[in-house]
From TrEMBL:
Domain Glucose-1-phosphate adenylyltransferase/Bifunctional protein GlmU-like C-terminal hexapeptide, first and last residues per copy: 292-358
Domain Nucleotidyl transferase stretches: 9-260
Keywords: Glycogen biosynthesis, Nucleotidyltransferase, Transferase
UniProt family annotation: Belongs to the bacterial/plant glucose-1-phosphate adenylyltransferase family.
Record PANTHER family: GLUCOSE-1-PHOSPHATE ADENYLYLTRANSFERASE (PTHR43523:SF2), GLUCOSE-1-PHOSPHATE ADENYLYLTRANSFERASE-RELATED (PTHR43523)
Protein name: Sugar phosphate nucleotidyltransferase
Domain of life (superkingdom): Bacteria
SUPFAM superfamilies: Nucleotide-diphospho-sugar transferases, Trimeric LpxA-like enzymes
An individual GO BP term: glycogen biosynthetic process
Length: 391
């Protein structure tokens, strides 16, 4: 079979409101993960390992934090003279489909002219808030052989979480029903936000929806586009049974890090057969473990310094745990500091937060401390920005 022309579009423009303080000053795909990586590293590394050379990233909220990390695509071998990485910015112009988008449906439609000009055989559209490894090229080839307009990658989730996603019913590999964020989910098989489209029929349906509803009412792909294509019998499922974790909420973000600390981590970021690549940070030496430090089950990134006690925790680049400080079941993002006398339990500490003495566990919820704070009292687990719905 001749190699198909594949384009990957990473929708990286959401406000990320469910991650609260972590996305107040950074794009959701730029949120640090596992001490050394960022969330967008997962789809970009999937492209690298699948040998896909044409990757577009659609930005919107807090784009500088993401653009800095992308580094022209070099870490993923996408800094090419022809093709490679293309960053799509919101734009204003004289034509419809320009400016800021109100959902992933509008985000896709706003790039319709560019997609048609590029003319891929398969358009892979993904989000950037999940941790997983997937061969996009293999799914795209399977899609093209099917003759359908859409292939959606499906996976099973905890039944209590299914109503956060598009819930699907299947017969064989045919999707017979798709309901986006239902009030009551009929099962726990969901679309995990990886889609392969045959561009022209899908863009034609988007054009019809714009005529009917207007550009501003396209909302997310799951609101109108996918249900219509499902009703037309044009959607098939690709079942994904490996590890997939949506980390778009604070509890899920914390849980994913705790999973990495298990005896058998569900995903290997350093697998030579499928590495998860990231932009290297210059001038970071190896982590330093001080005399008398106590470390039990931890991930410690380069540049971090540990002189205190760390248990079941992830420490990002440059994080510091001073002598006499205790960190348990927590995630310290790059540059976070826990001073002597402070005890941090069951918490996510944002980058460059300075946690001082006499700080201890706060209730049973995950404490989230951000915005470069200096914390001198109990961890303020309730001090969070209001959630927004345009995630």
């Amino acid at each position: 079979m001749p190699r198909i022309k594949t384009l990957v579009l990473i929708l990286a423009g959401g406000a990320g409101g469910r991650l609260e303080l972590l996305t107040h000053t950074r794009a959701k795909p730029a949120v640090p993960f596992a001490g050394t990586h960022r969330l967008i590293d997962f789809p970009l590394s999937n492209c690298f390992n699948a040998q896909i050379d044409d990757v577009w990233v659609s930005q919107q909220f807090n784009p500088v934090s993401l653009s800095d990390h992308l580094a022209n695509g070099r870490p993923w071998d996408l800094d090419r003279t022809s093709g490679g990485l293309l960053v799509l910015h919101p734009r204003q112009g004289n034509e419809a489909g320009t400016g800021f988008q109100e959902g992933t449906g509008e985000a896709l439609w706003s790039q319709a002219d560019l997609i048609r000009e590029f003319a891929p055989d398969a358009l892979v559209v993904v989000s950037a808030d999940a941790v997983y490894k997937l061969d996009y090229r293999a799914v795209a080839e399977e899609h093209c052989e099917s003759g359908k307009a859409v292939t959606m990658v499906t996976t099973e989730v905890d039944p209590d979480d299914a109503d956060r996603y598009g819930v699907v019913q299947v017969k064989g590999d045919k999707v017979t029903e798709y309901v986006y964020k239902p009030d009551e989910a009929k099962g726990n098989l969901i679309s995990n936000e990886v889609f392969v489209f045959t561009p022209e029929p899908v863009l034609a349906v988007l054009d019809e929806l714009v005529e009917e509803k207007g550009q501003d009412d396209l909302q997310d792909l799951g609101h109108f586009l996918l249900p219509r294509l499902t009703d037309a019998g044009e959607v098939r499922a690709h079942r994904f049974e490996d590890y997939w974790r949506d980390v778009g909420t604070i509890p899920a973000f914390h849980a994913a890090h705790m999973e990495l600390l298990g005896d058998e981590p569900p995903i290997d970021l350093d697998d030579p057969g499928w590495p998860v690549l990231t932009r290297a940070i210059a001038n970071r030496a190896s982590a330093r473990i001080g005399k008398g430090a106590q470390i039990d089950c931890a991930i410690v990134a380069p540049g971090a310094t540990v002189a205190g006690a760390v248990t079941r925790s992830v420490l990002g680049r440059g994080a510091i745990v001073e002598r006499g400080a205790t960190v348990e079941d927590s995630v310290l993002l790059p540059g976070a500091i826990v001073r002597a006398g402070a005890t941090v339990r069951n918490a996510i500490i944002d980058d460059h937060v300075d946690v001082r003495a006499n700080v201890g566990e706060h209730g049973g919820d995950i404490a989230l401390v951000g915005l470069h704070a200096v914390v001198e009292d109990d961890l303020p687990s309730g001090a969070r920005f209001p959630q927004v719905d345009d995630d």
